Structures are given as structure tokens and as C-alpha cells.
């Protein structure tokens, strides 16, 4: 099994900015940390980056928040995946905010190389995962309670994206169970 770091393809597809939000600080802190949040469909307005004349993908990066905005096509396909524990929050036209609820412990703490600033773990340089079953998309929670904001995906998710011609993602292989 391979695990990939999931990223947005901002070099080939448009990104966006938040125009208006009525999200409070608690909601923003809870976003993509495994917690369900309640947002009404008028809480967020966004606009596409006008400086680049790139096509709009099915998934796009929002520079103002860590996470994905997705279109109706991707939503309809992905919401049917059996092992995806994702909250989809509909807003502005036919777009959805993608709030990941799969936050798990899964790193081999002794072998993982962390990014550390002033004695505080702020990210992962080189993850080494435990040899266990993983959901198709997930984030890592450390024993301290800190949630790594990066998204990780399995071969299953990557195949799903490729098979359904979903545009806007990049995959960087970060772990192979055959090698570690």
C-alpha cells in the first residue's frame, strides 16, 4: 500500500480567495480537525483568482483557508465512497466546502521526521506510517492533540480521482508499505 500527500494543482487550475465570511474563530479552528461544523450557505463567498487565466478544476485551492473547495461533479461522485468520512457544506452556487472528519493516529513516531520550530511540531517532513488499514483520505493527529493540516490519501483515492477524471489534485508519494 502507498500513501500520498494530497495537494492542490495551483499551477494548472484556478484558485480562489474568500470575499466574505461570517465564520467565527471557533469554526475556523475546528475546520479540518475532525469536527463537524455548522455553516449556512451564505456564510462564505469566494471569487476566483483573476490574475491567472487557468481553467477551473473540480477541486480548487482557497488561499484564505487550508482545505478544498469542490464542484458538484466531484461532490456527487465522492460522497458515495463508502469509507469517506467527510462533511460537505454547500454554499455559493454549486460548490462545497470539504471538511475532513478522518483524523487518526497513524504515524510511527520513532521513525517519522517532523518539522519542528522552537521545539514545537508544526508539520511532517518525512512520514512513516504504521502498517494498518487507512481510510481513503485522512489527516494525522499527534498524541499531543495537534492535528497535522496536511491531507494524506491511499491508492484507492488516487485511483478514484484518476478513473473519474477529477481535475485539480496533485499526489506526492510519501510512504510505501513495501519499503518501510
Tell me the series of helices and strands, N- to C-terminal.
Answer: EEHEEEHEEEEEEEHE
Question: Residue ranges: pLDDT <50 for 5 or more in a row?
Answer: none
The class by helix and strand makeup works out as mainly beta
Main β-sheet, in a few words? 5 strands, mixed
Mean pLDDT: 83
Task: Characterize this entry briefly.
With 180 residues, the chain is mostly beta strands. The chain has helices at 25-30, 72-78, 155-163; strands at 2-8, 16-21, 44-48, 59-61, 68-71, 86-91, 95-100, 103-104, 113-117, 120-126, 137-140, 151-154, 169-176.
Characterise the protein shown here.
By secondary structure, the protein is mainly beta. Helix content is 12%, strand content 37%. The protein has helices at 25-30, 72-78, 155-163, and strands at residues 2-8, 16-21, 44-48, 59-61, 68-71, 86-91, 95-100, 103-104, 113-117, 120-126, 137-140, 151-154, 169-176. Strand 9 (113-117) and strand 10 (120-126) form a beta hairpin. The longest helix is centred in the C-terminal third of the chain and has 9 residues, at 155-163. The model has no long low-confidence stretch (mean pLDDT 83).
Amino acid at each position: 500500500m502507498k500513501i500520498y500527500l494530497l495537494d492542490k494543482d495551483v499551477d494548472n487550475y484556478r484558485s480562489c480567495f474568500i470575499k466574505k465570511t461570517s465564520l467565527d474563530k471557533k469554526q475556523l479552528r475546528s475546520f479540518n480537525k475532525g469536527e463537524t461544523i455548522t455553516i449556512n450557505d451564505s456564510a462564505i463567498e469566494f471569487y476566483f483568482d483573476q490574475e491567472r487565466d487557468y481553467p477551473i478544476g473540480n477541486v480548487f485551492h482557497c488561499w484564505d483557508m487550508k482545505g478544498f473547495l469542490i464542484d458538484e461533479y466531484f461532490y456527487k461522485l465522492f460522497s458515495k465512497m463508502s469509507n469517506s468520512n467527510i462533511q460537505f457544506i454547500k454554499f455559493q452556487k454549486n460548490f462545497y466546502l470539504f471538511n475532513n472528519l478522518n483524523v487518526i493516529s497513524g504515524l510511527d513516531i520513532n521513525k517519522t521526521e517532523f518539522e519542528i520550530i522552537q521545539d514545537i511540531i508544526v508539520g511532517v517532513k518525512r512520514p512513516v506510517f504504521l502498517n494498518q488499514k487507512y481510510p481513503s483520505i485522512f489527516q494525522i493527529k499527534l498524541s499531543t492533540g495537534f492535528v497535522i493540516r496536511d491531507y494524506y490519501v491511499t491508492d484507492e483515492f488516487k485511483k478514484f480521482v484518476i478513473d473519474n477524471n477529477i481535475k485539480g489534485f496533485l499526489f506526492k508519494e510519501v510512504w510505501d508499505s513495501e519499503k518501510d
